[in-house]
Amino acid sequence: MTPTNKILDQENIRRAMMRIAHEIVEKNKGIDSLCLVGIRTRGAVLAERLSACIKAIEGKTVPVGILDITLYRDDLSMVAQQPVVHETLIDFDISDKKIILVDDVLFTGRTIRAALDALIDLGRPATIQLAVLIDRGHRELPIRADYVGKNIPTSLDENVKVVLSESDSKDDEVVVIKREQK
Amino acid sequence: MGLIIKNAVIVNADKMHTKPQNILLEKGEITKIAADIPVGNHKVIDAAGKLVFPGLIDLHVHLRQPGREDKETVETGSRSAAKGGFTSIMCMPNTTPVIDNAMIVEGIIKEAKRVGLVNVYPVGAITRGQNGKELTDMAELKAAGCKALSDDGKCVESSQIMRLALEYAKMIELLLIQHCQDHCLTGSGVMNEGYNSMVLGIKGDPGIAETVIVARDIELAHYLKTKVHLAHMSLKRSVELIRFAKSQGIQVTAEACPHHFTLTDDAVKSFDTSTKVNPPLRTAEDVAAIREGLKDGTIDCIVTDHAPHTKEDKETGFDNAPFGMIGLETSVGLTMTELVHKKVLTLQQMADRMSAAPARVAGLERKGKIVEGYDADVTIIDPDKEWEVKVEDFWSKSKNSPFIGTKLKGRVEVTICGGKITYQA
Amino acid sequence: MTEWKKRDLLDLQHLEKEEIELILETAKSFRQVSARDVKKVPALRGKTVALLFYEPSTRTRVSFELAAKRLSADVINIASNSSSSSKGESILDTALNLEAMNVDLIVVRHPSSGVPDVLSRHLKAAVINAGDGCREHPTQALLDIFTVKEKLGKIAGLNVTIVGDILHSRVARSNIWGFKKLGANVTVCGPATLMPRCVKDLGVEVSYDLESSMKKSDCLIVLRLQKERQQDSFLPSLREYAKLFGVSQSKLDKASQDLLIMHPGPTNRGVEIGADVADGCQSVILEQVTNGVAIRMAVLYLLLGTKGVN
Fold first, then answer.
1. Catalytic center residues of B
2. What is the bridge-based pairing of β-strands C159-163 and C185-189?
């Protein structure tokens, strides 16, 4: 049995999302030109939830897109098997928009780097801000999040696992799992 | 000083001597066969545990000389033949220039005598330059040493020219060998037309290209009351036509190659150009029929159609590669493994199809049998020796064999031609 | 979803249904890339793709070239007239030389069947068959299947008719394998002289009556007719061919209005297809071309991502 440590439960996650939604609305002084773009797979789920929270606050819907960053990964030549590519589903023009990029866990920053490149190939947004549920540290690139659900100090031999009901068919939770020593 | 083969279990087509004999070979002749011959000052070969066949005869070989000495020469081809157990071979005339005059025939015979490993009988062309139109000087070719004529590599397509050639050849008692192929039907086909050619997208050569000429030439032989020999039969339908013709008393004889009784067109799936051969590898049904034809004697002879090609020529797309595979050094192994050990042929039938019958068909005197007074041509075979065909073991100048890597049972141990040992394993 | 494990794409005959579906699924994402302003992703940055074409071809070559470039790979083009082939260098030599210069993938088209297989046996680089002899043209069939699936939502159970010179068509062979594997019913239609003798052994129906086949079909793939076939006596005349097997507006009017008309191009208008049909609302010929780039991007991406072997 690997030791696990539950960091957030369903209720914690709901509250964190609502708080981030408030922060986004406040910082952007409303929701004009605002768009949410979630990174596949769990970032997309969280983007949908944020959109719902913002609607609850402002009474209006913010468009949500899904970004697949596979083709922009910097480790493609190193992995043994080509990762499965999925479609990017952004049916609005991102140019001159304020984009909130959403992901579940911020770690090395490499995924966000890929996402920034992917976004910029789609158009020229006015701003890109970053919202994440968990920031676990260990950045390898100069990237930071604008909105954070929870900061969790971790060691490199730990994994952070985010479970969301929409994508994982289980109740929401965030756990830290100690990786088995080799 | 002669040569004595001791403990010889002699396999003749008409009789198998189960009791080991001694055979004395002197001055190119079998002088004595007896239970015990005093050694004296003769050289001795012990054939204990092996089989002693009359020297094997291959009626269908391409030596490539003159013209393509990069593929094979009389010398390298003779070495290859000796290693394969052959003491007499007939070489086909599709050289450059074509063997269509006495001078070239004499040149090849002279070169073969200089090499001195195997009796070489050049096959002269039926038509000048194999052009299919004008007959060669057949009597002169016969006088120069030809035992048969053929346009092999090409069919004599004109029915009228073939009729005239057969009539003329009958007059001078010379055998004609037909390469049975209607080239119009073959077109640019390079493998058997069927399921595999369709799936592989390779142009098909339909079986009827062979059978229409088989049927036509049987009719010509019947009408002219003469002999005709049909080269490298590959199809069930051809076997049936020949069986019918023989039942009618028509003087048709036929030959088949080891690759046509062992391989099907499945082998082409590898796109290995050494499987590209003319006539092409056919279906399992055809392979079974060729075996049956060899068993009941419908097909008289086993020949190799040894067709050497350089690596450069074969190392190209399947469409562009030349037809043919080498066969002299694998013939005995394949015949033993696929026909004798699988009880298709008896040892005596093998002696017939590879020696007695070819001698009879081509009219080679004092050959094809181990009896006193016959030529001292002998092939000693170890029927149970297992070996693998390896590219580096070929003595032929070319290595284009689809059998490389194949394990065979039955190997030539010693070849003796004219009383002289020409090969010893 | 299944993982891609093969090093090469040589044919559809030996692909599993799941592998075909993976390519189709992957191609969806790539179609988006071509539709953007910035038609490029960095996925194959640093990879080198060689296009080795021993037969004239514009659209397949350009399609592969665009596909590779849109994935950020470097592309070199070697056409038979400009290569060393005229100097007697064998194709294997050429390919080995390319590999010695660290080319990662070779796309090859050759008039002789099996050349891609032979290359793949001798090379460490990945090989894509862009058409070999009369054997296969796998990416063409994949883009055809992709187009049908986009238009009709499925493949299984569909009735697909391929009309034309089946005997000499690699497009027909690849499509037969591909559509059959995905569960479609395939009919081949064309003159008896241009029909392989054993074609039924492929599990297809044979028809000599285009009109009735069209009535039963969801999709019609029209093959290009090489005009040399008439000179080689496979056909009495192009006029008679057009009458019997050409897809004219009047034949189309009698078929379902939902019948998809496809053609691998380039079209011989007035021979195998009428101009009004090729340009009409049931024709998806240009969409095939668009999808071709996406399919080739998907194949390049999948092959260059694997270190497996066939």
1. 305
2. parallel
* CATH architecture of the domain with range A12-70+90-156: 3-Layer(aba) Sandwich (3.40)
In chain B, domain spans: 55-362
Transcribe C174-232 into DSSP letters.
HHHHHHHHTT-EEEEES-GGGS-TTGGGGT-EEES-HHHHHHT-SEEEEPPPPTHHHHT
**CATH code of the domain occupying C17-135+292-304:** 3.40.50.1370
CB pair distance less than 8 Å for C301 and A122: no
Q: What is the ipTM of this complex?
A: 0.90
Class of domain C138-288: alpha beta
3.40.190.80, 3.20.20.140, 3.30.360.10, 3.40.50.12780: CATH of B55-362: 3.20.20.140
- pLDDT band at residue C308, thresholds of 50, 70 and 90? very low
> What average pLDDT does this structure show over C292-308?
86
**Range C236-267 burial, b when 16+ CB lie within 10 A, else e:** eebeebbebbbbbeebbeebeeebbbbbbbeb
Dump pLDDT digits (tens) for B21-58: 999 999 999 999 999 999 999 999 999 999 999 999 99
pTM (two decimals): 0.90
Strands A98-106 and A127-135: parallel
Identify any residues that bridge with A134 across adjacent strands, giving them in sequence order.
A105, A150
B321 to chain C, minimum CA–CA distance in Å?
Answer: 10
Determine the distance in angstroms separating the CA of B46 from the nearest CA of chain C, rounded to an integer: 47
pLDDT (average), residues B310-333: 94
pLDDT of residue C310: 37
pLDDT at A1: 47
